[in-house]
TrEMBL record:
Residues 1-31, 174-231 are annotated as: Disordered. Pfam families: Snf7 (PF03357). Belongs to the SNF7 family. Residues 20-31 have a biased composition (Basic and acidic residues). Keywords: Coiled coil. It comes from the Eukaryota. InterPro entries: Snf7_fam. It comes from Riccia sorocarpa. This is Charged multivesicular body protein 5.
Length: 231
């Protein structure tokens, strides 16, 4: 049967956009290389035309240069077509990637919405309000416990404003009696120096002692010479 009807050939898979774009880029690179070679030949022919005198030889060089120029124009046209096709493929690739991103975004949003709905089912407004009321009751109860534990003992409650002002006035009088001339209380004054605590005798009054022959006074310091008065 296979010999009579033959075997059905399997179709090759269609090339992807990326494969087609890569193939176009390679063709464009090949065309660019050919154009560069033609440019080099045109430069060489231009130099020959400059060096050749007008005549049949120069015309022959111009003819070859004209043929190379036509080939260059042909390759440049092909390169422009390849660039346009490559641009179209890149646009299609960009659109395809955008669609894939949109599909992934939609899938992620569907999953997040499903998860959010499942979470919201476990939360009820009545339960949240009840929990808030219980929390407020616990906070009030804790505050009451702290106030009870911080209560003072044996503190008289019958003190009025007159008693307070009288107590402050008495403290002010006591502190005023302890102040010294510079306004600082005596208990805040620094300790006196050791020299101030010693009761040193006062210097004797009267004439100083006689100076000894060495010319020093009673304290051991040299005496200044007295000026002699002429008569």
């Amino acid at each position: 049967m296979k010999r009579v009807f033959g075997v059905k050939k399997e179709k090759a898979p269609a090339p992807t956009v990326e494969e087609a774009t890569e193939r176009m880029n390679k063709r464009g690179d090949n065309v660019d290389e050919k154009i560069k070679k033609l440019d080099a030949e045109l430069v060489r022919y231009r130099e020959q035309i400059k060096r050749t005198r007008p005549g049949p030889a120069q015309e022959a060089v111009k003819a070859r240069a004209m043929r190379i120029l036509k080939q260059k124009k042909l390759f440049e046209g092909q390169r422009d077509q390849l660039y346009n096709q490559t641009f179209n493929l890149e646009q299609v690739s960009f659109a395809t990637e955008g669609i894939k991103d949109a599909q992934q975004t939609m899938s992620a949003m569907r999953a997040a919405t499903k998860e959010l709905k499942g979470t919201m089912k476990t939360l009820k407004i009545d339960d949240i309000d009840k929990m808030q009321d219980e929390m407020m009751d616990l906070v009030d109860y804790s505050t009451e416990i702290q106030e009870t534990l911080g209560r003072s003992y044996n503190v008289p409650d019958d003190i009025d404003e007159d008693d307070l002002m009288g107590e402050l006035a008495a403290l002010e009088d006591d502190m005023g009696s302890e102040e010294v001339s510079d306004g600082v209380p005596a208990y805040l004054q620094p300790d006196p120096e050791p020299e101030q605590e010693l009761n040193l005798p006062t210097a004797p009054a009267g004439q100083p002692q006689a100076v000894n022959p060495q010319g020093v006074d009673e304290y051991g310091f040299p005496m200044a010479p007295r000026a002699q008065v002429r008569t």
